[in-house]
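Weekly modeling sync, notes
Attendees: S.R. (lead), two postdocs, one rotation student

Agenda item 3: backlog of single-chain predictions. S.R. asked that every request posted to the team notebook include the full sequence so nobody has to chase files. The rotation student volunteered to paste the first one in as an example of the format we agreed on. Action items at the bottom.

Example entry:
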Amino acid sequence: MEMKVDGQSVFVHTGGRAFDGEQPTLVLIHGGGNDHSAWGLQTRYFAHHGYNVLVPDLPGHGRSGGTAPTTIEDFAAWLWRFLDAAGVEAAHLVGHSMGSLIVLAAAAQAPDRASSLILIGPSDHMQVHPDLLTAAAANDPVAWEMITDWGFGKPAHKGGHQAPGLWLRGGGRALLASCPADVLGSDLAACNDWTGALDAAAKVTCRTLFMMGSGDRMTAVAASKGLRAAIPGAQTKILPDTGHMIMVERPNETIDIISGFLDDIR
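Predicted structure, as returned to the notebook:
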């Protein structure tokens, strides 16, 4: 569906279900240079299993208009304006990679509005390799190759897509290639520049789940050690033989883990 936020058009995937005020709301936020399609299977599942699901293309990404924010804090503030426009007071917040930083910052900005927090592939400080920053800033396709090489686990380099004939790494490259010029570079710079993750974690009051891949070469498991320690009672799930693109590489396992976590707090 289409919404208006700050006077700009925002595309929102809802899993094909109408909004139901009696149901809790689950918000899924994509990573840098991505769009709503990264959450395809999760969106559909939760929309048909008791949740309103809102999966926006962030401003300047995918089918959404406007200009992409350049800081994690500005992305987080936009997220609350988006939920205000949707008429949602509180929501379960899920984010992947850059999206994990956005929902973490959002939960810190408005703790009473975050029903729970699920951080997929996060990091205490999401430092980006200088070569990748340079390539992305120059809109060099080498950046897509770096991300899909480092971002997918070794099994995904060879195959593993649920749909026969499709290739996980090739699909990831195509998604990055569709990103508007300059947006990937801006997103990666926002991640690299944000040093407020640990301060934000100290303000989180809701139940929190960390999901990571044991083979993640972009945000290794050890890279979120400080965040996990900073949020009391946070749960951790580490998926074996999985890279950074957890919800794409392991869609069913991702659904099962998120569903189990939400069932425990519902």
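Discussion: group reviewed the output briefly. The two ends are 27 Å apart (CA to CA).
Action items: rotation student to repeat for the remaining queue; S.R. to check formatting next week.
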